[in-house]
Amino acid sequence: MPTPPKHLALPHPRWWSLLVMGLCVGYAITTLTRLSTWWLPLIATAWIGLGALLRWGAPLSYQPPAQGRRLWPWSLLPIALWGLYVYLADSFGIVDVGAVYFHLQAGMTDHGGVGRIGAAVVYCLSMLALLAAIVWLTRHDHRWRRAEPLLAIVLLASNPLLYGITQRGAAIVTDDGAWLNRQYVEPMILETPETPPNLLLLYLESIERTYADRERFGDAYADLDAVGERGLVYEGVRQINNTGWTMAGMIASQCGTPLMPAGLLHDRQFTPLDKVVPGVDCLGDLLAEEGYRLAYLGGASTAFAGKGIFYEDHGFETVLGREELQPRLEDPDYVNSWGLYDDSLYDFTIEEIRRLNEGDGPWGVVNLTIAGHAPHGYPAQACIDRQGEFNGIDILYSVECSAWLARDLIERLEREGLLDNTLVILVSDHLTMRVSAWDDLIQGDRDNTFMLLGPGIPVGREQREASMVDVFPTILEAMGFTIDWHRAGLGVSLLSDEPTLVEEHGKPTLHARMREETALQERLWEGLVPERRQTEANTGQEQVVETPDDAAPDEDIYP
Fold this sequence. Notes:
Blueprint: H1 13-33, H2 39-54, H3 76-92, H4 97-106, H5 117-140, H6 142-158, H7 160-174, H8 179-183, E1 189-191, E2 198-204, H9 214-217, H10 222-228, E3 232-238, H11 246-255, H12 283-289, E4 293-298, H13 307-313, E5 318-320, H14 322-325, H15 342-357, E6 363-368, H16 381-387, H17 395-415, E7 422-428, H18 438-441, E8 450-453, E9 460-467, H19 471-478, E10 482-483, E11 487-488, E12 491-492, H20 501-505, H21 507-516, H22 519-524, H23 531-537, H24 548-551, H25 554-557
Membrane topology: Multi-pass membrane protein
Domain Sulfatase N-terminal: 246-480
InterPro entries: Alkaline_phosphatase_core_sf (IPR017850), OpgB/LTA_synthase_biosynth (IPR050448), Sulfatase_N (IPR000917)
C-alpha cells in the first residue's frame, strides 16, 4: 500500500485509533445496557488505558504480514452489522427481527424517523472511522492481526440481529408443522343483532396498562382509569411474539393472528408489498359485509408499513393519514416528525364521526394516536397548555397527555350525542419500547390496555391471561355478533369462558411454534407465496403431518 505524503498523514494514528475504538465501544455499551451517558468517557478512557498498557498498535517486536497476505480484516463486516444493531436499538429500543422484515417489505416511506437522519449520518461516519481504526491496528500490530479472525467469529455469533434472522430462516427450511394453523378458526358472523352498534376503536400508541400502577407511575394513567370505571377493563392482555409493533398490534387485534412477516416466503423479497395479509378476513372485512361504513384516521402517513394498503384492502372506505389531513390544519406547520398531533387528529375524528352519523346504517371508526410513541412521546399543544412545559424526555408526561386526550374525546362525543348505540374500545397497539420509565416498567409483568364501554357492556374488571389476538373475537361479541365457538383467528372472546391459547398452552409454547412453523404464515400471505410452494401445499391432504409431535393429540403435546 503506497505511503501517503507526509502532509496528508494523520498525526499519532495509534492514539486516534484507540480513541475512536474506545468511544464506539463505550457508546455501544451505554446504548445496549442503558447506562448513563456519563459512563461513555469512562469506558473510552479505560479502553485507551488498556491499549496503552498492552501497547496496541506499537508492539515491542513488529512482525510484518507475510508476502501477499490479505490486508483487510475479516471483522469489518461483523463490526458493521453490530453497528447496525446498535443503531436500531438506539432508535427503536427493542430490535424485533419480525418488525425489520415486515417494514423492509411493506415500506418505510414517510416514517417519523426524519429526525434520525442526522443521527444516521453520524452513525455512518462513526462506523467508517471505527473500520479505519481496525484496519490500521491489524496492519501495524501482528497480535491484532492474529486475533482478529476470532473476533470476527465472536461478533457474528453474538449479534442478536443475525440470531433472529437465522431462526426465521431455519423455520422456513424445516417447515416442521402446522399446529398454529390448526388452531386458526375462520372468522365468521353467524347471527347479527337487530340494531348493530357503531364502533369507535381507539389505538393508544404504546399506552400499556402497566402505567396504571400509581406506586410506580403516579397519576399518568389516571384519566384512562376514570374511563375504565364506566366500562369493562381487562387485565392480563399480554404481548406475544410478532405483535410488538404498531402494524402487528393492529393486525393481531383486528385479524386474530400474529403478524408473521412474509419474509423469505415472499417471492419479490424487498419489493414493497401491494397487499397486507391478503389471506385472512379481518374486522373490516366482516363489518363491511354487514353494511358498516368504515373509516381509519391516523396522524402518521398511511404509506408507512403498508398501513393504508391494509385498511383499503380490508373493507375501509375512508383512509386518512398525514397526507390527507395536514392540508386541512389551520396551521399546516403544527405537526411533528411523524405527522399530526393528537389534539388535531381527534378534531378530525369528531368531524368524521359527525359525517358518518348523518348517513344511513352503522359506522365504524378506527383511530391511531401518536402521543405515547417511544422514546419520549409527542405531547400535543393542548396538553402543554394543561400540564406545563414538556422537558422532551419524560414519557410519563406523554402518557398523561394521551390518557387525558382520549378521555376528553369520549366526553366531547358524548356531549354531542355521537356515541348513542356505539361501542367504544380503547386498546394499546403494543407495549412500549425503551423509554425514560423503562426500569420501572420491567419490574413486573406487563400488559396492554384493553377496555370496552357502551350499550350492554358490564362495568367491572376481569383478569384473563390473554393476548392481542383475543381482542378481535371479543370486539365482535361485544358488538352483539354471534361467532363460531366464540373464536376468530387464533383468538378467543374474553366475554366467554373458553380458554385462550395463552391460558391453555402458555406464551413459551406459542413463541416456539411461531419460530418453527410456516403454515399459518403461508395462510396470511396467500397469493404472495411462490407458485412452487402453493403447488406443494395443494397435493391432496387437508393437513400434512410432518413430525411425530404433530401427529400426537394436542393434549399430549403440551402439558
